[in-house]
């Protein structure tokens, strides 16, 4: 199960499943919570670990289960977990599997005798029209909400901000302050990224398209569903000279969704990875290259015992502990459609930064300037305080990697 979780939702970038950079290239997306060979070593004291956690506060768990979900629990919590594992967890698992199988059968029936779109090394049923598409969309939204209910998200309050409320918090300077209220639907939904639960919520709300690794399209049950969603598939091993790259394909999809009301919206997580829900990381520009309006959506997960955030905890442990919670909470803030100014259209970085600041202001989120490299270092430290993953950011040469690690941890060279 952990392998499937990592395949389907491992380190999403602009969306689920794939690690995508602005130019369409791909970064290493190996599991974050496993030690990697050929790693550098550095001795990290508890004091240095505390300093590290201050720097990477966006990835630190603060619930009663502690770091990596392995903290020491009081007897009462252990008894509650034991009771839940014997009672509610099996019921929820059966419900979740049943919902997944039912939706797969619906998708199989609706796509019977239908030929998927095949363009730019993609394959999907998202642009299939008529009753088939309606059944896929509306049943998908209903069953996604049913899945959330099975996971304990019984009530999902949604707050919709009005354009007037938004203007009070508009961030930017000069021309970027004045949005051109051009007509038309947004081309993409922009959301902060806290958990794989985000995906289920957005499916239940607007049923958008995501970005996923090509291997997702070959998974049992999930593969066909992802094609019906219209996922943009990433093929890391592709070396075709005519392959446009993920950014180009996503930009085209965003423009099409903006112009055509029948085209599925793109769902993009511009932070590039999940956080603990209290911070907002820097936005990548891939979602803003088209210069079309976007719909900012902010997700919050209030909790008392277990945080639904997928930050520094393994997939299987997270699923089990999430299912053990009798009630889980999610709150949604939907901002008005953000229409970029001409200056923002000409400068995607400015566009992305202004939307980020607006979302942080509306949801009282803290801005952080760290990213995935720091997350990998933190997870490596959690795996034994002496491992540094080999990534494009950190070369294989130990003497170079050790310097990077020690600088972050303030370890004397």
UniProtKB/TrEMBL annotation:
Residues 170-181 have a biased composition (Polar residues). Pathway: Lipid metabolism. Residues 167-186 are annotated as: Disordered. GO terms for molecular function: lysophosphatidylethanolamine acyltransferase activity; O-acyltransferase activity. The chain crosses the membrane at residues 79-106. Belongs to the 1-acyl-sn-glycerol-3-phosphate acyltransferase family. This is Phospholipid/glycerol acyltransferase. It comes from Dillenia turbinata.
């Amino acid at each position: 199960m952990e392998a499937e979780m990592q395949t389907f939702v491992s380190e999403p970038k602009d969306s689920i499943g794939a690690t995508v950079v602005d130019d369409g290239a791909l970064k290493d997306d190996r599991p974050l919570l496993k030690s990697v060979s050929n790693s550098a070593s550095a001795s990290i004291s508890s004091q240095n670990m505390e300093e590290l956690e201050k720097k990477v506060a966006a990835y630190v768990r603060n619930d009663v289960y502690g770091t990596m979900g392995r903290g020491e629990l009081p007897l009462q919590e252990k008894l509650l977990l034991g009771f839940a594992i014997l009672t509610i967890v099996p019921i929820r698992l059966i419900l979740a599997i049943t919902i997944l199988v039912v939706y797969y059968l619906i998708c199989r029936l609706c796509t019977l005798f239908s030929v998927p779109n095949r363009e730019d090394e993609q394959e999907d049923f998202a642009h299939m029209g008529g009753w088939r598409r309606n059944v896929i969309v509306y049943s998908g939204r209903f069953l996604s909400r049913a899945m959330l209910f099975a996971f304990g998200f019984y009530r999902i309050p949604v707050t919709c901000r009005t354009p007037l409320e938004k203007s009070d918090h508009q961030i930017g300077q000069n021309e970027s302050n004045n949005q051109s209220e051009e007509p038309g639907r947004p081309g993409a939904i922009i959301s902060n990224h806290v958990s794989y639960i985000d995906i289920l919520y957005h499916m239940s709300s607007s049923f958008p398209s995501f970005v996923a690794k090509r291997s997702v399209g070959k998974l049992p049950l999930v593969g066909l569903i992802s094609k019906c969603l219209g996922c943009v598939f990433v093929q890391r091993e592709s070396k075709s000279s005519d392959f446009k790259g993920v950014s180009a394909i996503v930009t085209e999809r965003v423009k099409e969704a903006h112009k055509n009301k029948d085209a599925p919206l793109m769902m993009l997580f511009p932070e590039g990875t999940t956080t603990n829900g209290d911070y907002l990381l820097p936005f990548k520009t891939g979602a803003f290259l088209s210069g079309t309006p976007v719909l900012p959506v902010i997700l919050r997960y209030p909790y008392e015992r277990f945080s639904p955030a997928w930050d520094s905890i393994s997939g299987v442990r997270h699923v089990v502990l999430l299912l053990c919670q009798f009630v889980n909470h999610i709150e949604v803030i939907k901002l008005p459609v953000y229409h970029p100014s001409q200056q923002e259209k000409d400068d995607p970085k400015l566009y992305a930064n202004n939307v980020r600041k607006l979302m942080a202001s509306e949801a009282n989120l803290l801005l952080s300037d760290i990213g995935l490299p720091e997350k990998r270092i933190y997870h490596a430290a959690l795996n034994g305080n002496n491992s540094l993953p080999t990534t494009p950011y950190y070369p294989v040469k130990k003497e170079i990697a050790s310097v990077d690690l020690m600088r972050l941890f303030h370890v004397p060279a």
